[in-house]
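hey m, so remember when u said the tokens were messed up on ur end? i reran from scratch. heres the input so u can diff it against urs
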Amino acid sequence: MVPNKVLQEFNSGKLPPEALKSVVLSFCGSKRPEVLVGPKVGEDAAVIKWGEGDYLVITTDPIVGATQGAGRLLVTVNSNDVAAKGGDPCYLATTMIFPKHTTKDTIEAVAREIHEACQEMGVAVVSGHTEINERYTFPVICGTMVGKANRVLSADHIVSSDLILVTKHAGLEGMSILAADRPDLLGKFLSPSEIEEAKSWISRTSILKEAKVLRKYARFMHDPTEGGIIGGLSELMELTNLGIELFKEKFPIHPITRKTSEALCFDPLHLISSGVLIAVIPEEDADTALRDLARIEVDCAIVGRFIEGNGNIDCDYTEELWRLLEVE
């Protein structure tokens, strides 16, 4: 059991894996045979057998503290988790809790964003709960997304020699947040046009297009959020008990991100990376997968492979963003 005094010292963000396993994941209710993938560190969504050859994919994620853009982001992060499990997002239920003095226009704007994002993805909003609560000082908006899949992607299928493919570029979401929230900081070494470009990356955080291509080949896919790409790969090492040989020179890092990381002394591979997709691909399918992604104009690279024993990286869930937001 993790001591209470340790829990009280946690930073904002997701619970560290060891604490999560100890105080949350040890309490999962009744076991049911149709639950094929349940809650684990590194699993983006649950998978439930549903009829002959069909599977339900279920996930939940919150957006905390934001209103502008929060509705669209809520739909994106939840649909990403469904897509990473090889599913098509279908149904969304929401819980929206707003602080006292929130205006009708603010609530309507969030609901409209959710509606419009769902329309674009073919998702129906099927249930929800909305309230004003004076105990809250900022909004908390939660989504539960249900999708459908016709095969199960599981970390249990990963074997040594499988390759690790990464789409887009490291720290995509974290850089967009920094550009939006700390242009004063980035303006010390980036041009106004570079800051605007980084800010625009928030529009690239959906992985639906590339996930539909890669699910034909992948044994497993993962949406790396807090902890960045290294955090996501650390979760895969925990799930598989395999090591990873990382090809560090192959990692896609945008020049703007590299310039920022050099100026602020951080590792872009530890920057929150929604919009990036990690896919584990059998070696024999890698070239075909790369060609298919090139056809839909999604940048990608093979950045490592699974191996027996220890690889050249250790499990590390450090997230750089929270420190960077406080830099003076």
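this time it looks ok to me. The chain has two domains: 31-149, 155-325. if urs says something different then somethings off w ur setup not the seq
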